[in-house]
Amino acid sequence: GSSPESVDGAENRFKFSRMLDRKGILQPRWKELTNLKSALEFSKDVGYPCLVRPSYVLSGAAMNVAHCDKDLEAYLLTASHVSKEHPVVISKFLTEAKEIDVDAVAADGEILCMAVSEHVENAGVHSGDATLVTPPQDINAETLEQIKVIARDIASLLDVTGPFNM
Asked: How many domains does the structure of the chain reveal?
């Protein structure tokens, strides 16, 4: 399986977002949270809604979309309890976005097989609750190829061995 360092690179939200930035993989603006004041400043700068993402959680536990300062404060409190020793990251939440899942199997960072699924609902519905369709119906060939390239890059950067989902 994947090494503990690889798992940490995937599950630690700060490390993962920083890795994407360094590789030039586009993502919404984000910030590692150090306190409520910096979170409020970030959300004021990018505008609501914002996504609060704790590290090392299963099934999106304590991951929430904040629509106002009051939401943000409550969600940060919850996230900090769920992921006490690991960073919480806040990012701009893109409304009306299309959400895509990639399920793959890799060996030593090289993808052996991959399936790309498209969420029927707009982003914001957890993949465990969403309706997914494979092959994707509303993604053009160029975008689908870009998704596959990004999946290969991430698998390689994290040196993934075994099944994984993005």
From this structure: 2
